[in-house]
Design brief:
alpha/beta, Arginase, Chain A, 5 strands, binds zinc ion
């Protein structure tokens, strides 16, 4: 997953290295390798037209299918009650059924949730999108379905932002699983200039508490944005620690 596939900031060389390095130093995190999503799985979220356009670029197609496959594998493990963070790219939350932009190709969360549902493993989900940018792809694909609830919190600084996350979780309906579109571009030294590393830990912890109380511990997250390559690793680690209950 460290191979480049396009020239966007999300696909830039070196972007994931700090996360791989830091997580690799912590024996409690196990790395697992996905297999690419198959056409049937992609087509649950996307038009054949969009898929065939992406398939026209072999290297990109390979990486986009692998990212979607990573999302599927993460969901399959999370549904058993074990927390998972999918360190995948390209990101997905700006990919709609028949269009895509914002460094995204396939909507990884939608592919994953619709696959879990097709397998009869879930019926409903809460999507917490804490990326700096609104996940229009998540909303366009999943938003009309009453079984899926999507929240894009906002707020200036840690305190306001975390209060908004908490409010969204407190008001969430009963669901079978919670998943995050985990963007780290709200970070204080990233594009959003807004959240501290500890805020990401707290978001993870709020998801842990929600999952424990509301959906049998079922929780996972997929990487979206985050462009401070040096600090992405420590922010991912902080979030993962929170998601595990720390
Ligand atoms: Zn973003």
């Amino acid at each position: 997953m460290l191979e480049t596939y396009d020239s966007t900031p999300a696909g830039a060389p070196g972007r994931l290295e700090s996360a791989v390095e830091i997580l690799g130093k912590h024996p409690e995190y196990e790395f697992i390798e996905p297999t690419p999503a198959i056409e049937e799985q992609i087509l649950r979220a996307h038009s054949r037209r969009l898929m065939e356009r992406i398939q026209g670029d072999e290297r990109l197609s390979k990486m986009a299918s692998l990212a979607a496959g990573g999302a599927i594998l993460a969901g399959e493990i999370a549904v058993k009650g074990e927390p998972v963070f999918a360190l995948i790219r390209p990101p997905g939350h700006h990919a709609s059924e028949d269009s895509n932009w914002g460094f995204c190709y396939y909507c990884n969360i939608a592919v994953s949730l619709l696959d879990l549902r097709a397998k009869g493993l879930i019926d409903s989900a809460f999507v917490l999108d804490f990326d700096l940018h609104t996940g229009d792809g998540n909303i366009n694909i999943l938003g009309d379905d009453k079984k899926f609830t999507i929240s894009n919190p906002n707020g200036n600084g840690d305190e306001q932002y975390l209060a908004d996350v908490k409010r969204a979780l407190d008001n969430a309906p009963d669901v079978d699983i919670i998943v995050a579109s985990a963007g780290f571009d709200e970070y204080e030294d990233d594009w959003g200039s807004n959240l501290s590393t500890d805020a990401f830990r707290e978001i993870g912890h709020l998801m842990y508490e929600f999952a424990k109380e509301r959906c049998e511990g079922r929780r996972y997250a997929l990487l979206e944005g985050g462009y401070n390559f040096e600090d992405l690793g420590k922010n991912v680690l902080a979030f993962c620690e929170g998601l595990r209950g720390g």
